Amino acid sequence: MSPKEQLDTLLHESRTFSPAESFRQQANFQDEGIYESALQDPEAFWSAQAQELTWFEDFESVCNWEPPHAQWFIGGKLNAAYNCVDRHTLTHRKNKAAIIWEGEPGDSRVLTYDMLRREVDKAAYALRELGVQKGDRVTIYLPMVPELPISMLACAKIGAIHSVVFGGFSAQALRDRIIDADSKLLITADAGWRRGKIVPLKANADEAVVDTPIEKVIVVERVGAEAGITLHEGRDVRWQDLMASAPTSPYPAEPMDSEDYLFLLYTSGTTGKPKGIVHSTAGYLTGVNTSMRTVFDLKDNDVFFCTADIGWITGHTYLVYGPLSAGGTVVMYEGSPDFPDRDRYWEIAEKYGATILYTAPTSIRMFMKWGSQYVEKHDLSSLRLLGTVGEPINPEAWMWYHKYVGQERCPIVDTWWQTETGCAMIAPLPGLITTKPGSATRPVPGIAVDIVDEDGNSVPPGHGGYLVITKPWPSMLRTVWGDDERFRNTYFGKFEGIYLPGDGAHLDEDGYIWILGRIDDVINVSGHRIGTAEVESALVAHPAVAEAAVIGRSHEVKGQAITAFVTLREGIASSDDLVTELKQHVVERIGAMARPEEILFTAELPKTRSGKIMRRLLRDIGEGRVIGDTTTLADPSVVEALKAQYKDQD
Ligand code: PRX
């Protein structure tokens, strides 16, 4: 289906699904009035939500908004780790499972809140022992093992700012993020497991830290002797040794100001340099905690299975800070959905009696391809609510999820949000909102969203435009680390005092929002955000490449795939080997998620007479669309040549 056809199908979707009476009756939120009251007085709404946290000192005022900078819960003092762990140990939740960890086949571990507190506190002592101070940045490069959330919470406990780098990133990408954050300490593992194979994290880390501010590296032993690593005398310390020698007494949580930074998380933008998105302590925690109760309808006996990796925002928010701040039980899985077999998620969901499942459309499309038999093999009757995130979900994938995983019983919450927003912004409250397959429905209470035209005017129903957020919200990013100018320009540069997420959206006649995807040079591959400029800079760093232009084109499973158009330097001949080499080169510079699906060599790139690459044309070629006006091109024959070449590829 062409993108135009896909869009038409999406916008003509007319099926609706109302919450079942049985779900509605048990839902945390059953009164639609919550939307209106939060809209009338957002500060009162958020102030009430913030009371769900435990404060060392109450805040004096709710919000100070000096666009583009917001402060929330001013004057308050609290600690995120205390809220996620310690406070639950003082209640009936003390011996409740906080984290259920499922490793690659053979391993599993359950940490109760009490056990988690002891681990976090030992790690907090260890970090202090190694000289980490309040406000210091700690980079964490770990696989999906319990030491990852433990490390994050230990940082939060002592007031250090963590910067988690997804374990799939390359040494170079890790290095860039360490340097940008100016981290003195790195926490990594000897290696990780992925489909029974070893992922060499320590080897990447060794390469990454050379000539950076990193003074100490903590190494978690995950794989053991098989990883074959060496420890650098004076720099590397074993996690297990640190934990064994740490005091066992409780570590007193550092009282943090509401606005103190909790973490940085790097994400891609429209330039080659990733942005360190900065989140605050109280605002972020209030936002994520609220969404657990509103969007995910979390109850004390829920088992929340979030399939995201903690290296991305979904994992930060819905595997760590959201569920734990709400005293929930999360299931954390180390491996991939098809190892040892394609029913791995369903096996885990059944094993632990998951009640809520949160995953990505790209995974659902993959499950569809594999066939329903893998789901049907398992008893999924414990599930009561399903969620999706990361990219627009096509109605067929939504229906498949509804039918085979939700067994036509579970509401689906399609949650639109971003690294920058901290938590779900547009999503149905599952007991209240009638859903439509493919629509994230409407903003959650307390969030003010609009769809506007080029001049910033609201579009009428039946029209599309720029998605914007018109009022500040507690979990909004505070800045871009070390680059407030970029923060201003990227998010508040187009419309004064109004946040621009970079997505296009359509408003239907019922006021439902349909997210249409990115409107900037960011590609969404399998729910991962990748900047075209990042891939282009990786490509031009290769000695054979003179110039590169990268676009996203639609892909059946990944949502979007990367196509690179490359011109080679004089005297270099194109070959299949060079294609393989260039793809590998991108993997080494960024990571496997940025590997181009296809690379096309071209003598020239289509450019305007002023020398600007015409990406729109490249996108048209990539999508196999009829090419429109090419009169502004310096050399129109370039397009014909590319089209012919692209066809040959197929
Ligand atoms: O384009 C939107 C898409 O993912 C982008 C945010 O990416 P990231 O910061 O990596 O966070 C992903 C997980 C929260 C958005 O700008 N996106 C995310 N969720 C949805 C979505 N697009 C459509 N529908 C969604 N539910």
Q: Assign the structural class, choosing from mainly alpha, mainly beta, alpha/beta, alpha+beta, or little secondary structure.
A: alpha/beta
| Mean of all residue-level pLDDT scores | 94
Specify the number of helices: 21
Work out the helicity level: 25-40%
The biggest sheet amounts to: 8 strands, mixed
CA-to-CA gap between the ends? Answer: 15 Å
Low-confidence stretches: none
Describe the strand arrangement of the main beta sheet, using strand numbers.
12-11-8-6-7-14-15-23
Strand content: 15-25%
Bound small molecules, by name, code or SMILES, are: adenosine-5'-monophosphate-propyl ester
**Strand segment tally:** 30
CA-atom Rg in angstroms: 24 Å
Shape descriptor: globular
Task: Describe this structure as you would to a colleague.
This protein is α/β, with parallel strands linked by helices and 650 residues long. The chain contains 21 helices and 30 strands. Strands 12-11-8-6-7-14-15-23 form an eight-stranded mixed β-sheet, sandwiched between helices. Strands 5-4-17-16-18-19-20 form a seven-stranded mixed β-sheet, with helices on both faces. Strand 28 and strand 29 form a beta hairpin. The longest helix is centred in the first third of the chain and has 17 residues, at 113-129. It starts with a helix and ends with a helix. The model has no long low-confidence stretch (mean pLDDT 94). Bound molecules: adenosine-5'-monophosphate-propyl ester. Adenosine-5'-monophosphate-propyl ester binds next to helix 12, strand 20 and strand 25.
